[in-house]
Amino acid sequence: MGKVFLIGAGPGDPELMTLKAARALGSADVVLIDDLVSRGCLAHARSGAKVVEVGKRGGCKSTAQAFIEKLMIQYARAGNVVARLKGGDPFVFGRGGEEMAALLAEGIEVEVIPGVTAGLAAPATLGIPVTHRELARGVTFVTGHAKEGAEADWKALARSGTTLVIYMGLARLGHIVAALLEAGLPAETPACVIQDATLKSQRELVSTLGALSAQGFESPAIIVVGAVVARGRAQAKARGDRKAA
Ligand code: SAH
Fold first, then answer.
1. What is the mean pLDDT of the chain?
2. What pLDDT shows up at residue 236?
């Protein structure tokens, strides 16, 4: 019997993968890689490792998810060390919990290696201190995706005094903004959209809740709402720093 590493590969920039993730990846016979994971991460894989692309961009189809779980089970049963590379952190909106449960149910050993989640990395690229102590009581990671009608409690979130970090929110940005305004957040609340965080292709809009727009942006993107956004470096400066890096 082999084993499976559920690995957080970080938000994009391969340098944001942990040393532990790189080491586990280097021990794997088979690598299952999601499409949000930078191909640069594969530099740490053994040269003879089998690499399987298991992306299911946009769809989140349960059939695809079941297929990925079946693949991991098959490879591990055949005695392979399997590295399941997932974007960001495997347990933050990554379905890592489901995958772990499926593997454990089959008696397969699982080791989880946390990763830098996009919700922290994206604001960090703009110098946004998500829990700056005078401005936020905490930070909330929330999905903007309404799965089967289940919607985040935007009223409660607006009152929470925490910085809101919204994953998968781009497609419903108009709805989310309207809900937060209706819940009482002022239109002037600082807010931003960050696409392709930590990658060369990164783009961002630093604005206010009332003026936030998804126009011109594509997934993957993180939306940050809260006073802390105004404590970030100016957009132009952040760009300059990245170019210089
Ligand atoms: N497990 C991942 C999240 C998977 S859900 C993590 O911890 O980061 C997919 C969502 O993550 C995307 O819709 C987007 O909201 C966000 N995301 C992932 N990578 C991103 C990136 N490089 N830049 C901006 N958002 C990103």
1. 92
2. 44
